[in-house]
Amino acid sequence: PQSRADSEDLWHKRSGHLGPRALQALAQAAQNVQIKGTKRIECPDCSTAHASQVISRRPRERSPKPFYQISWDLFDMPSGRLHEEWALIIKEEYSGKLFNHNLYTKSLDEIMRVIEGFEARVWRKYQLHIVEIQQDNDTATRPWRGRSRYEEWAEEKGITILTPPPYTHEPNGSAERAGQELITKSIKIRSSANLPAKL
C-alpha cells in the first residue's frame, strides 16, 4: 500500500491532540504513515487548554479617583477565633488601601454580603460609586453556566466586573499580591512575637 503523509496538524487533531512524543510513537507503530510531531504551543486549542497564565497583557491604567476600581480575592486561613475559615481582601486601587473581611464559608451569600456592604459604605461615607471590580474567575460569583445573583447585582449597579480570560490562571493582580503580602507579614509578626499559630 502507498504511504500516507498527511500534515502533522491533521494527525495531531486526528489523534485527540496528542503531544509530540506520543505522536511520534504512534507514527512508528502505524504502518505506512509518515508524520512529524507537532509542538503543543503550535496548536491553538492545546495552547489554550494548557495555559497557566497570560504572557502578554496591557499595563493596567491607574484608577482615576478613589473607589473607582477595587479588586478582591479570597484566601483560606487557619480557623479564626470565631471559626472563620476565609479572608476576603479588598484593595482600593487608587490609594492601595486594603480592607480585610473574615468569612465563615466561601459561599456566594457570604461574598455578596461583604461586597454589597462595602459598596454601600463607600457610597454612604464618601458619595462615590464603584465602577469596576477586578477579580478572578471564582465559580461562586461567576458560574460556568448562567448568571449569578452577584453578576446581576453588579449589572444593576452599573459595575463592570473585570476577570482574566477563562481557562487561564492569571493572578488577580494587586489584590492577590496584596493578600499574599499580608499573609507573609502576619506570619513574620506572629513568629517574631512567639505567638501561637491559631491566634
UniProtKB/TrEMBL annotation:
SUPFAM superfamilies: Ribonuclease H-like. GO terms for biological process: DNA integration. GO terms for cellular component: nucleus. It comes from the Eukaryota. InterPro entries: Integrase_cat-core, RNaseH-like_sf, RNaseH_sf. GO terms for molecular function: RNA binding. Residues 60-199 form the Integrase catalytic domain. Keywords: RNA-binding. This is Integrase catalytic domain-containing protein.
